[in-house]
């Protein structure tokens, strides 16, 4: 079982989405949260991000049963995200993966932009140096672009469902046997990643973050079993589809789904920068 820890409103909402799958144990930390079970922690509200870091409580007892693989989910715009490193210090014995949700930065207040930018960079730097196993970057505006028109009511619900269902299916296929596969762990230096989906018919990729300098890419083909048995040219089509100058891996998995899916994980060693910095 993998542990999912949500910090802040965005992190907790996404952690809740994971709770519908039996493979995960969920922990939630926030200021406005109902403490209705043992793995929910109500953090004292602070006046600014710096205070969240300075006054972060010791959570050793809260996380006393946490071990193994951990997915730490955080939205960088929330002031509580400043406590991330203090919280993560408590579980440093675990294999920590970070799921970082980036908002539409251009619409944030100036103070929140500075805070988000610092959090965004610090977590990438720590991951690249090997403190954390991996960081998955996700951009809300990028997912919205792929989804098309999204109503105001239920906006975050739809985006979060897209993120969680994609992460979950990739996790599932990493733990079952494929029909055939060239998948292998990415190079140790390539710890900055994103996820996405691909249209199996036209090969159009829809990544959830526009990674600069992609160095490796992995494809997970979830194909109806009957289609695998009956379509003689499918294997050739898949091999043609994944050909690239990048290092590529692919796995083909038999399913009972009527619809076929392709999930994508893209990796790089390059720290990602915000638009304003890239344009200066």
What would you say this structure looks like, in words?
There is one protein chain. With 280 residues, this protein is α/β, with parallel strands linked by helices. It has 2 domains: 2-132, Rossmann fold, CATH 3.40.50.1440; 186-268, 60s Ribosomal Protein L30, Chain: A (2-Layer Sandwich). 31% of the residues lie in helices and 27% in strands. The protein has 9 helices and 12 strands. The protein has helices at residues 8-18, 49-54, 84-89, 110-128, 140-147, 155-173, 225-230, 234-242, 275-278, and strands at 2-7, 24-30, 40-42, 69-75, 95-102, 134-139, 180-181, 192-198, 205-207, 216-224, 247-255, 261-268. Strand 8 and strand 9 (205-207) form a beta hairpin. Helix 1 crosses helix 6.
Structure summarized in a few sentences:
The protein is of the alpha/beta class and 280 residues long. It has nine helices and twelve strands.
Strand and helix layout:
Elements: E1 2-7, H1 8-18, E2 24-30, E3 40-42, H2 49-54, E4 69-75, H3 84-89, E5 95-102, H4 110-128, E6 134-139, H5 140-147, H6 155-173, E7 180-181, E8 192-198, E9 205-207, E10 216-224, H7 225-230, H8 234-242, E11 247-255, E12 261-268, H9 275-278
Parallel strand pairs: 1-2, 1-4, 2-3, 4-5, 5-6, 6-8, 10-11
Antiparallel strand pairs: 7-11, 8-9, 8-12, 10-12
Helix pairs in contact: 1-6
């Amino acid at each position: 079982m993998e542990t999912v820890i949500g910090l802040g409103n965005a992190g907790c909402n996404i952690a809740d989405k994971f709770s519908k799958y039996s493979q995960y144990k969920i922990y939630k930390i926030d200021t406005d949260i109902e403490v209705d079970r043992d793995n929910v922690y109500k953090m004292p509200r602070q006046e600014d991000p710096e205070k969240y870091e300075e006054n972060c409580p010791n959570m050793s007892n809260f996380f006393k049963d946490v071990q193994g693989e951990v997915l730490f989910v955080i939205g960088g715009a929330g002031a509580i995200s400043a406590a991330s490193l203090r919280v993560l210090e408590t579980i440093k014995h675990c294999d920590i993966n970070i799921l970082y949700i980036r908002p539409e930065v251009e619409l944030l207040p100036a103070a929140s932009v500075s805070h988000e930018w610092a959090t965004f960079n610090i977590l990438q730097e720590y991951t690249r140096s090997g403190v954390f196993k991996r960081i998955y970057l996700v951009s809300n505006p990028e997912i919205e672009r792929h989804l098309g028109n999204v109503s105001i009511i239920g906006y975050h619900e739809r985006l979060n469902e897209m993120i969680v269902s994609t992460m979950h299916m990739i996790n599932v296929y990493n733990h079952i046997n494929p029909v055939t596969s060239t998948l292998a762990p990415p190079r140790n230096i390539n710890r900055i990643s994103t996820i996405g989906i691909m249209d199996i018919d036209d090969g159009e990729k829809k990544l959830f973050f526009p990674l600069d300098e992609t160095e490796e890419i992995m494809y997970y083909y979830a194909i109806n079993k009957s289609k695998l048995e009956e379509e003689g040219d499918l294997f050739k089509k898949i091999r043609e589809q994944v050909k690239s100058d990048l290092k590529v891996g692919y796995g083909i998995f038999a399913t009972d789904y009527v619809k076929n899916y392709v999930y994508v994980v893209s990796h790089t060693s390059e720290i990602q920068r915000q638009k304003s910095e890239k344009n200066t």
